Amino acid sequence: MVKVLGHRGMGEGNDENSLLSLIRAVQIGADGVETDVWLTKDGSLLLAHDEDLKRLYGVDAKVKEITYKELKKIGLISDEKLTTLEKLYLELPNNAIVNVEIKDPDAAKFVGPLVNSFNAIERTIFSSFHHECLLDVKANTPDAKIGLLIGEDAKGKDPVGYLEELLNRYKPYSLHLPVQLFDEFGLETGLAFLRLLRNNGIKIALWTINDPELALKVRQHCDFFITDNLLSILALKGGR
């Protein structure tokens, strides 16, 4: 059965990627969470989607140019606001799946050893649009599961040839495909494409799937749903 992961916890919004949002997603029934990581100026692995703090916190500062200590001093480190990857693994249940999306390639060499220190490699997927940095993850943590995020980079390319090239180079655990692929190729062609990938041993994570009707049609062909509409997508798990 498809596993449901809360996108940034309970979904995109004012409390996204906060510790409370991530924990709440699992408490209401999600199999796990998707979160984003950046490296701060002093080397902390901070959970944040954007490169800066303006959208959510009104602070004109880039994550890479500020320290954890400075963030704490201005009141942005708390369970309701910013937290770290270490804190997430300390507080999340030991059976929760974690999809760590690496936004900052400089964080890649640090995420694996940290997750390994919690004996959580088996339940963690490291994904990124920066595919090269996933090789750094594997170099530091050979048992790590890596997932290739596919987005704008695939536009205008032959999808089969492009993905075949990526699969040969990176040998990923999973492909993280945008839900818009069904708009571009149609439902039947899209599903045939997913079947082809899965028949070759590739796990499929679909992002960001928020439409319950579409989710019903594609769930047998996916391994992971990443969703902002957590309650509605979880409601589907009651049906087979």
UniProtKB/TrEMBL annotation:
| InterPro entries found in the cross-reference section | GP_PDE_dom (IPR030395), PLC-like_Pdiesterase_TIM-brl (IPR017946)
Tell me which PANTHER family the record gives: GLYCEROPHOSPHODIESTER PHOSPHODIESTERASE, CYTOPLASMIC (PTHR46211:SF1), GLYCEROPHOSPHORYL DIESTER PHOSPHODIESTERASE (PTHR46211)
Q: Locate the GP-PDE domain: which residues? A: 2-237
Task: Please name the GO terms of the biological process aspect recorded for this protein, alphabetically.
Answer: lipid metabolic process
Q: Which domain of life is it from?
A: Bacteria
Name recorded for this polypeptide: Glycerophosphoryl diester phosphodiesterase
Q: Which organism is it from?
A: Kosmotoga olearia (strain ATCC BAA-1733 / DSM 21960 / TBF 19.5.1)
Care to name a GO molecular-function term for this sequence? phosphoric diester hydrolase activity
